[in-house]
Design brief:
Layout lengths: L3 H12 L4 H8 L3 H13 L3 E6 L7 E6 L1 H5 L6 H38 L6 H14 L4 E6 L2 E6 L5 H6 L2 H14 L3 E7 L8 E7 L2
Antiparallel strand pairs: 1-2, 3-4, 4-6, 5-6
Helix pairs in contact: 2-3, 5-8
């Protein structure tokens, strides 16, 4: 069972900036109780507050993760990963790095095919894909927007690798399209490496 501070960090990671009232509702506690935890996390450098105006009236105080807070969810081997990718690029060039990305995609495809076997409808395939991604550490989930599916990944466990070589991101998007089939169109809408808070993908049933 996660402690209350850990649950607050997860909620901020998953949902973005929140007020004490929002967090209190999510945690079934008073806003005053939530605020005590928020101030403690703020003193620890995990979160920070900012004021946001929402129409008429006084600005409201919101809380968000700091870089240190985001790092709690990060890749424990980020520095090593970035160095290894740099070494591959230096020793074998871009072609060698492309082969590394392709090999990873091949391995992932075999895993995804196994885990998604039996998912016959688009809804089932999207749900199965999200489950696989969640198991891999992406904090993945699915929401609906009308008839569309939104695949949301609140965390990227390979962020260091993706920052060093965005071929990993292109490869994953291509893999999503392959696994969901010709009956779906997949487009990335929010991108962590393009100042996004997370990565999101809109999945539309092809007509």
């Amino acid at each position: 069972m996660h402690s209350t501070p850990e649950r607050i960090l997860h909620l901020l990671k998953k949902n973005g900036p929140q007020t004490a009232e929002m967090l209190g509702d999510a945690l079934s506690m008073t806003s005053m109780g939530a605020r005590r935890h928020l101030h403690a996390l703020g003193k620890a450098g995990q979160i920070e507050s900012f004021d946001k105006s929402e129409g008429v009236g006084r600005p409201r105080q919101f809380w968000r993760l700091t870089p240190e807070g985001h790092a709690r969810f990060g890749d424990a081997h980020a520095e090593l990963t970035a160095k290894m990718i740099g070494d591959v690029r230096r020793l074998f060039g871009e072609d060698g790095l492309a082969k590394l990305v392709a090999e990873r995609e091949r391995d992932m495809r075999l895993t995804y095919e196994r885990e998604m076997a039996g998912a016959s409808t688009l809804a089932a395939r999207v749900a199965a894909l999200a489950a696989v991604r969640a198991a891999e550490g992406y904090m993945a989930r699915v929401e609906r927007d009308g008839e569309d599916f939104i695949l949301i990944e609140d965390h990227c466990p390979i962020c260091a690798a993706a920052s060093a070589c965005q071929g990993f991101c292109r490869s994953e998007l291509a893999l999503f399209r392959m696994m969901l089939g010709e009956g779906a169109r997949v487009a990335r809408e929010e991108y962590l490496l393009d100042d996004g808070r997370r990565c999101t993908y809109r999945i539309v049933k092809a007509k």
